Amino acid sequence: MSYFLPNFRIIVCTQKKLPLLESFDFIERCSTEDELLLKLAENTESVRILACSQEIFLNLPKESIPPNLETIYCISDLSNTIDSFEIIEKNAQITKVSNENDLVLNLLFKVILAYYSQSQKYQKDAEQSVANSCILIALETINQIKTNRDAFCPSL
To answer: Does domain 9-152 have CATH number 1.10.287?
Structure first.
């Protein structure tokens, strides 16, 4: 799947296993700060989304933050010290999530948006079969959300 989305990587650093994300080869999971630093170093130009706890994020060396970072998902409250990383200059959006279910749901929506946007690019380039493949992956992701809606919205 990752060849449909060049230079698009999501890194999730959490000790909890997130099974709904395992079917995507561009989502890399790690459980320690050392693993996270290694994955960031291996993917310097392609990491678009980073998800980790506030503590891990605040301990990251400034130079390890990817230049193309679009979104940071922090599990738990964010403190004002995140501004010290000058993330705003990098145009990264910071999103707070309260738990792993919120994180997974947000990441799946990012996947849908990324594949839909990429399908539009392929359509403009007259590559209809690849565009259709991207749309199919977006639809499968929507179905994953529908199938697991009880986990994401237990009160409904």
So the answer is: no
Indicate the helix (H) or strand (E) that contains 98: none
Distance of CA 19 to the CA centre of its chain: 14
Nearest-5° Cα angle at 12, 155 to 70: 95
Strand order in the sheet with 71-75: 27-30, 9-13, 47-53, 71-75, 93-97
60 DSSP 8-state letter: S
Whole-prediction pTM: 0.83
Strands (E), the chain: 9-13, 27-30, 47-53, 71-75, 93-97
Residue 39 CB-half CA count within 13 A: 23
Which band of pLDDT confidence, cut at 50, 70 and 90, is reported for residue 154? low
Please report, for the chain, the start and end positions of each structural domain, with discontinuous segments joined by +: 9-152
- Which pLDDT tens digit goes with each residue over 28-42? 999 889 999 999 999
